[in-house]
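WARN  no MSA supplied for this record, continuing single-sequence
INFO  ligand: pyridoxal-5'-phosphate
INFO  echoing inputs
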Amino acid sequence: MTLTCGRDILALPGPTTLPDEVLNASHRQPVDIYDGPLLETTDSCLEDLRRVFRTKGKTYIYASNGHGGWEAALTNVLNRGDKILVLESGRFALGWGEMADMLGIDVEVLPGDVRRAVDAEALEARLRNDSEGAIKAILVVQVDTASGVYNDIARLRQAIDAAGHGALFMVDVIASLGTMPFEMDDWGVDIAVAGSQKGLMTPPGLALLAAGERAMAAHPSADLRTLYWDWTFRDGEEHYQKYCGTPPEQLLFALRKALDLLFAEGLEAVFTRHRLLAGAVQRAVSVWAEGGAVDHNILKPEERSDSVTSIRLDPSYDPADLRRYCKDVCGIVLGSGIGPLSGKGFRIAHMGHVGAPAVLASLGGVEIAMQALGIPHGRGGVQAAIDWLAEQVPG
Ligand SMILES: *Cc1c(COP(=O)(O)O)cnc(C)c1O
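INFO  complex generated
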């Protein structure tokens, strides 16, 4: 038997629900790639992405997913054999490091804990030990989508500065851009990598990258450069070069519309909406945790992200059963546990084109599932979420 009807609610940490306006914007026949309005779309998207990344640096749009953006960041500024430091937190920074390893980069991991943010003091201590400056780049994620952790990028920058270290600072904002504040220039970030399909409410298929002055200075001599990702080639005169080939036109129309929607709402309002919805999810999880079978993955509240919440489930229950029930009976599509949390939990995403109705539906679905499957949980998680939202948005 099922209780659902019509569209599912996606509570996945990417790809996320698309606004109808964005879907409609991409519903167009192809246009000339050498001339005409597409050129303006490219220029305005590149310009407006600087507003989103909060940088005066350069921006690039690649026809690729986030993994391509990772490769673009590495190959444009590094050399074979360079040493880099990957700050572990969850799964994604490690994945970026594995990609670097295959490119012939010497990868060192600063070990982390799947339940905590990156330790800024450990970073500072490691960098102080590198007085020769062997480490050429530091890689970190702002939000790790597996663990649900939020890393304080400004604090990590302080640690790098305190150690007086000159490595390039590269940040993966794939699961955070457009959901939480990010200040590329103010926080001294040299390269930031985003993807279209999470906070930016655009279909999967675009990687968006921003590069600051120090990254541009390292670029000319980088020997890992390849034509497809290459900034110099993409900075050429021809529009065709900006995509190293045919532009992903319909995705660009979609991105243009999504950026318009973000600016119309206002970035600050977008961040506030995410913060309040995340607070609602976190309050529900805290109530459920009283039953002893589910718990927050991230231990400290201030280290929990505003875009996705990762929830651990006692090993006597199978998270696949819970997800199946939510999907088949309630029409709620939850994220599975991945990386170190594979088979050990599930994730509720609250990023992008999402509001209180969808978040309360997700929480309600999980509560129905836990009740039906006999998973012990504190009662009233949805009520706690409602209490929080009503308190934060008084009449
Ligand atoms: C989703 C995600 C990626 C991978 O992006 P793809 O588009 O799937 O390649 C990388 N890093 C983070 C933090 C992510 O959330």
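The longest helix spans residues 267-289.
INFO  checksum written, moving to next record
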